[in-house]
Amino acid sequence: MGMRASGSPPERVADETPVPDEWVRALSGGGFERERATARLHEMLLRVARAEVRRRSGQLRISGPELDDLAYQAAADAVLAVIAKIGQFRGESRFTTWAYKFVIFEVSGKIGRHFWRHPAVPLEAGDWDRLPDRFGLDPARESEWRDLARALRRAVEEELTEHQRRVFTAIWVDGVPLDALVAELGSNRNALYKTMFDARRKLRASLVANGYLHENPVRHS
Amino acid sequence: MNSWPELDRFLQTDPRDAGCDKAMELLHVYAEMTVADPRAAELAYPEVAAHLRACGPCAEDLEGLLAAVRTDLTEQ
Questions:
Q1: Were B3 and a residue from A26, A145, B28, B31 both cysteine, which residue would form a disulfide, CB within 3.0 to 4.6 Å?
Q2: Domain end: A117, A141, A162, which one?
Q3: Is residue A25 domain-shared with residue A99, that is, in the same domain?
């Protein structure tokens, strides 16, 4: 790739900012050097966390100090994650890009948990009647999409396992964010995504078999 | 047939889809390649690209990471 596999070009690094190998050595070691590197890392991750919560503030019903608190917690937890996984850094990217990844994940997780403080819908509401409004379906074609919605609901009942039905209903019908559902169910993003992936595949096959959808090949780009 | 295109698109799955774990594992590498050349990133990691097209949370994480990387580049 066209980018240096380093944190910053050494000649431009501020005096207190370690370069990649130094990051690993400093954070793996002990004493004052580790303390200084940890403080610098926290400062960098807090800057990224604050920018990220601002970028995602539309998904949150909080602002000001509470938003900054979320960023601060994300940065603090990301520092611990980076230190715990420092042995896994292989220099495939800049050290900073690798470290930023953890604070982005922490922000996502905390936004997911925050959803349940002021939930737009309770878990397992299963409110199928809200679908037309949620998806802005065309009233002029109501008879068509009502048929499709009925077929979809029937397929959800008949084709999915109980767990798939619960996850699909929360995410697709009620609009619960995936990370919020992860937090609520004590699961992880990959497991719930896989559940949804399998549910989507089953439901599409059912709707195609019953003539409600065309069997389009997946467009690879 | 096309009265609900969003549903149609949502139910389509790509067998190459890497899943969240793999995408999250490679996200830092994918982000730097994307900043340099988005098409090259898609070609190098088609399974990650397929996942990011379908997974809103992972795509959102990539956007956040790209913003952080680009901010660093502009500040150098």
A1: A145
A2: A117
A3: yes
Question: Residues in chain B, how many?
Answer: 76
Tell me the chain B residues in contact with residue A3 when contact means C-beta distances shorter than 8 Å.
Answer: 32, 35-36
A171 neighbors A202 (Cβ within 8 angstroms)? no
A71 exposure class (CB count in 10 Å sphere: 0-12, 13-18, 19+): buried
Last residue within a domain, chosen from A61, A82, A117:
A117
* A1 assigned to some structural domain: no
Contact A89, A5 (CB under 8 A): no
- Pick from B4, B69, B71: which is nearest to A145 by CB? B4
Q: Express each pLDDT in A29-45 by its tens digit.
A: 889 999 999 999 999 99
pLDDT digits (tens, 9 = 90+) for A161-171: 999 999 999 99
Contact flag A2-B61 (C-beta cutoff 8 Å): no
pTM of the model as a whole: 0.88
Structure confidence by residue, pLDDT tens digits, A81-116? 999 999 999 999 999 999 999 999 999 999 999 888
CB-nearest partner of B3 from A145, A207, A218: A145
